[in-house]
């Protein structure tokens, strides 16, 4: 339940921060690197994957629940390699001049402290 809650919080807060940032016309063409976005380039995707793993951990406690491992595994794979991070970052690197610097200092998926530029 705790892991599900952490995932849900990351997804909701990350989406809320992004919505607020994009609604401000002064931020057009800029990169959101505050709040959760300072620690991961995709807090909403991390939250979504974490939420799915939390559901799996709840299900695994039931008879045959381990069979549900396919769902969080597939979602995490899709978010990391297919429709999430990979696809989105290709477009952002081309459309936002500061995005390459953001990539250099901010972890892609798992939240961690930003790296200092060299």
Describe the protein in words.
The mean pLDDT is 93. The protein is 59% helix and 0% strand. It starts with a helix and ends in a 13-residue tail after the last helix. The protein has helices at residues 2-23, 43-59, 70-82, 85-95, 99-105. By secondary structure, the chain is mainly α.
Give the key terms:
about 120 residues; mainly alpha; 5 helices
Listing every helix as H and every strand as E from the N terminus to the C terminus, the arrangement reads: HHHHH
Structural class, judged by helices and strands?
mainly alpha
The main β sheet shows up as:
none
Shape: elongated
Which range does the strand content fall in? under 5%
**Number of helical segments with 4 or more residues:** 5
Number of strands: 0
- Radius of gyration from the CA trace? 16 Å
Low-confidence stretches: none
Average pLDDT works out at 93
Helix amount, in percent?
55-70%
N/C terminus separation: 40 Å
Summarize the structure.
The protein has 118 residues and is mainly alpha-helical. It is 59% helix and 0% strand.
Secondary-structure blueprint:
Blueprint: H1 2-23, H2 43-59, H3 70-82, H4 85-95, H5 99-105
Helix pairs in contact: 1-2, 2-3
């Amino acid at each position: 339940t705790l892991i599900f809650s952490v995932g849900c919080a990351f997804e909701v807060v990350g989406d809320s921060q992004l919505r607020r940032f994009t609604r401000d016309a002064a931020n057009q063409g800029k990169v959101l690197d505050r709040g959760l976005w300072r620690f991961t380039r995709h807090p909403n995707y991390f939250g979504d994957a974490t939420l799915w793993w939390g559901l799996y951990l709840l299900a695994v406690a039931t008879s045959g629940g381990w069979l549900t491992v396919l769902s969080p595994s597939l979602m995490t794979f899709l978010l990391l390699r297919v429709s999430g991070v990979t696809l989105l970052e290709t477009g952002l690197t081309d459309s936002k001049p500061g995005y390459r610097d953001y990539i250099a200092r901010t972890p892609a998926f798992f939240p961690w402290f930003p790296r200092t530029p060299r």
